Amino acid sequence: MKIAKGLCLVCFAAVSLLPLMAGGQADSAQASGGKTTIFLSQSKIEIDQALRDVTARYSELHPDVEFVIESLSDNYTTSLRTKFAGGEAPDIFMILGGSELDLWQSRLEDLSDQPWVSDMVPLAKEGISTADGMVYGFPVSVEGYGYVYNKRLFAEAGITSVPKTFTELQRAVEKLKQAGIQPLAGTYMDWYQAGMFLVNMGIARQPDPLAFIQGLNDGSETFVGNEIFEEVANFILYDFSQCESPLNTGFNQQTALLYSESIAMTLGGNWLQPSIDSANPDMQVGLIPMPISDDVASNDKLYAGVTGYWVINKESPAKEEAKAFLTWLATSEEGRKAMTDQLLFIPAFTSFEANPDKVGALSSDLSRYASQGKVYGIYNSMYPAGGAEYFGNAVQKLVAGKLDVPGFLEELQTRWDQLKR
Amino acid sequence: MGRGVRQNSMWEHLFFLGPATLLFFIIVFVPFVTGFIHSFSDWNGITKELSFIGLENYKNIFTRQSDFLHTFWFTLRFAIVQVVLVMVIGVALAVVLVMPLRFRDALRASFYLPQTIGGLVLGFIWQFIFINGFPAFGTLFHLDFMQLPWLGTEETAFTALIIVSTWQNVGYVMVIMTAALMGISRDVLESAEIDGAGTFRTLFRIKLPICMPFITVALFWSTANVFKMFELNLSLTKGGPYGSTVSMALGIYNDAFVKNRYGLASAESVIFFLIILIITSIQLFLSRKKEEAYS
User: Fold this and answer.
1) Can you tell me the ipTM of this complex?
2) Is residue A326 within 8 Å of residue A198, measured between CB atoms?
3) Which residues pair with A120 in a beta bridge?
4) What is the largest CA-CA distance in chain B?
5) I need a surface site. Which of A15, A67, A191, A196 has the fewest CB within 10 A?
6) Model pLDDT for residues A392-416, shown as the tens digit of each residue
7) To the nearest 10°, the Cα dihedral for B150, B152, B154, B158?
């Protein structure tokens, strides 16, 4: 009996001490040596070093502010959640906007009054605003995708102009095959690209994508029988049929094939640029559309959007300093230069532009398409939570022959209905 | 005097069991209770407020609003195949490796080695083997089955998981059974030999029955272990293709961290706990009975 009592006492003492210990740690991190520390946690692993340089420069200009930078790519949101649960929440962190905004809103500082908000391009604002017009995030960069193609292999196969329609794409693929070049590679082993980017094609191509998503949520729209989605499904089947063992190809194999110049085209975006620069800097690449039909006007387009926002933790003691840092980035001459020349972003602001000499071939193709208005949006942040995985699974079932096209559309519908709140 | 002894033993208990109990309390018991409480809420894992929705989560699980039953069915099939393989191969290896072979120790070490590597690492290594190694080997020797998309179809992905997880766990059973076999008294084996029992007869009628308590432990461990499979699943197949190889643990993780349904995931964990409790109890009960029959 006594033993039990003793044990209980010890346990309770320990448990009640735990939060104190955690709290103590957090406080000391915030105020070491009279300086304010901004803990910035973000998921673009490729900008890690550049971001450290930029923040170090900011600390030179503002000696009372210092930074802790953390860049994670895998399971970023999981780690974010455990940090919040454990009382180690970052001051600036990254979310996707759309349905992630609904999820995190109660934790976020309202940024509507920030000077850079009025300069945000409309597409960027849409993703991070609530229904009543409050803006909660800083758009990191415009990103976009299409087919990344190898210019040398295209030339070798005698392809003189890039395909802008589905027929032209088929012709190019045949030419590549005749020249003994593997035309395409797709990551059908993983749900990620299929769920994120292939399914998005169907949504982005709707006449009014936001209304379509709204309609899916209130039940007035459906995937079933949607002609655009049928076209996309047939395009996916074609893409799959031109790959070599696509069910056994994941992201690592896909990029390895691209960087070793073993394939002519693959789905990819300007986020691949830094790794191309380090893996095979001599490779000549470009970004081209993924045409699903023969109408040039609707097929000579890339898919682009803001795929991440920096947001500020509402309860952070350093939130004013964090706001000042974001303002510096978006409004000062030096901050803007840091964004375009060091972090290599394509700004989602009307007030300044990407530097075409610095950003590399993929990003300059993307910004050229964007400036001509030839882009569809990226809407996967508006899927219900967990949607991308289920939609990717549905694509896998389609290409594996487990579902036909109508069955695929029904599967999308069932899953959307199951996940929407 | 009696008092003095009791006082002493209390401090002894506290000294030896206290730290372990404390740790257990903090990292197992407290999370278990909070998880149980969360299972009645619709918490998404982020907001500070949570509202209680009664048994809604449990209802959703059994009305197929979640994939939990599907993952249970996969895990059950997987567990049966894997436990049988691990037990049979593990026991066989132990039997062979108690014989005076030349490289016995090296062989034992190499069979045990995978057990010491984490599931995540194993999964990534084997992913490379299935994707790049197998096809290369298959092209070289014209073996069709090696050129299959091993992680790309339902059946082969299942088989791939079985291969790796059996390979990983067989060493542990082997070690337990080696200890058991080496502990059998020489007298018993000699008298069996004098009575004219052959190698197989000795194995099945004498050695294995004597080892029954050890088999119980090994079986209990493998069963509980296979139901909790997570890292290997995450790194080797990620549950694909099209979600056909999602184990219960991975499914719960996905519900909590990918689909933001922390409350639902908590309810699933509670049921997960009950399922393992029931299955291992039944299995323990049956093998204990077997033990009694033999002793």
Assistant:
1) 0.77
2) no
3) A349
4) 81
5) A15
6) 999 999 999 999 999 999 999 999 9
7) 40
Contact residues for A259 (Cβ-Cβ < 8 A; gap 6+): A275, A276, A279, A280, A283
pLDDT band at A359 (very low <50, low <70, confident <90, very high): confident
DSSP H or E stretch at residue A293: none
Give bridge partners of residue A93 from the DSSP assignment.
A311
Cα distance between residue B226 and residue B280, in whole Å: 11
3-state SS class at A114: coil
Q: Which residues of A touch B243 (CB under 8 A)?
A: 191, 389-390, 393
Question: Cβ distance A365 to A298 under 8 Å?
Answer: no
Q: Which residue of A has its CA nearest to B242?
A: A393
Query: Do the beta carbons of residue A99 and residue A323 sit within 8 Å?
Result: no
Partners of residue A142 on adjacent β-strands: A306
The encoded tokens of residue A50 equal: 């550049």
Verify whether the Cβ–Cβ distance B131 to A18 is below 8 Å: no
A77 inside 8 A of chain B by CB: yes
Q: Cβ of A15 and B149 within 8 Å?
A: no
Q: Which residue in A190, A394, A400 is closest to B153 by CB distance?
A: A400
Neighbours of B280 (CB within 10 A): 16
Say if CB B274 and CB B36 are below 8 A apart: no
Q: How far is CA A170 from CA A149, A245, A290, B11, in A?
A: 15, 19, 11, 81
CA distances from B73 to A86, B68, B121, B227, B247 (A): 34, 9, 26, 11, 9
SS3 A110: coil
Residue B138: count of CB within 10 angstroms of its CB = 15
Partners of B240 on chain A (C-beta within 8 Å) are: 189-191, 393, 396
Q: Which of A197-201, A413-417, B81-85, B282-286 has the lowest mean pLDDT?
A: B282-286
Structure tokens at A30: 């915030």
Sequence-ordered list of residues with C-beta below 8 angstroms from that of A75, at least 6 positions apart, any chain? B257
Choose from A389, A391, A398, A403 for mutation: most chain B CBs within 10 A. Answer: A389
Closest to B206 (Cα-Cα) out of B288, B95, B287, B108: B95
DSSP H/E element including B151: none
Residues of A in contact with B49 (CB under 8 A): 106
> Is A400 touching B (CB cutoff 8 A)?
yes
Distance between CA atoms of residues A36 and B281, nearest Å: 56
DSSP 3-state of A306: strand
Q: Could you write out the DSSP letters of every residue in B29-83? A: IHHHHHHHHHTTB---SS-S---B-TTHHHHHHHTTSSSHHHHHHHHHHHHHHHH
Range list of H helices, A360-401: 361-371, 387-399
Sort residue A130 into left (φ over 0), alpha (ψ -120 to 50) or beta. Answer: beta
Residues B79-97, mean pLDDT to the nearest whole number? 94
Taking the C-alpha atoms of residue A142 and residue A328, their distance in angstroms, rounded to an integer, is: 19
Q: Which residues touch A243 (CB under 8 Å, ≥6 apart)?
A: A184, A185, A186, A188, A249
SS3 A226: coil
Question: Which chain A positions have a beta carbon within 8 Å of B254's beta carbon?
Answer: 386, 389
Q: Supply the pTM of this predicted model.
A: 0.81
Give pLDDT, residue A28. 38
List A286's β-bridge partners, or say none.
A149
Nearest to A68 by CA among A96, A29, A33: A29
